[in-house]
Design brief:
Blueprint: H1 6-16, E1 22-28, H2 48-54, E2 60-65, H3 69-75, H4 83-96, E3 106-112
Antiparallel strand pairs: 1-3, 2-3
Helix pairs in contact: 3-4
Length: 113
């Protein structure tokens, strides 16, 4: 995440949304360090528990995994550029239940005020 105060960002999203308004947020979880010195930092990693906590002020929320542990591992290696290997990793994540585990590459979160 490239912002030092995530709670302030969530509070601002909540503040500017009209009742019934919605937003979509993606956050990385398992990802290599990727700050750009002098431009932005690499501050936080978000677990599902954190995502649920950030969603508390909203009337409704849906939180979903992006990639499972196997596909994430493939994506951060040089093999991540080979489509067929990523597809196989995705299938393995689904078959082994890794897509529904706590070891995912990140989360998509849909929030409604």
């Amino acid at each position: 995440m490239h912002m030092p105060d995530t709670q302030q960002a969530i509070n601002e999203i909540y503040r500017v949304l009209k009742p019934g308004g919605y937003c979509f947020i993606y956050v990385p979880f398992l990802y290599y360090y990727h700050a750009e010195k002098g431009y932005y930092g690499d501050y936080w990693r978000f677990t599902k528990d954190t995502m649920e906590m950030l969603a508390e002020p909203f009337a409704q929320s849906e939180i979903g995994s992006v990639f499972g542990a196997i596909e994430t591992w493939i994506k951060i290696t040089p093999l991540g550029h080979i489509r067929v290997i990523k597809k196989i990793a995705n299938i393995l994540d689904r078959l082994t239940g890794k897509l529904n585990s706590n070891q995912v590459s990140g989360y998509n979160m849909f929030l409604i005020k």
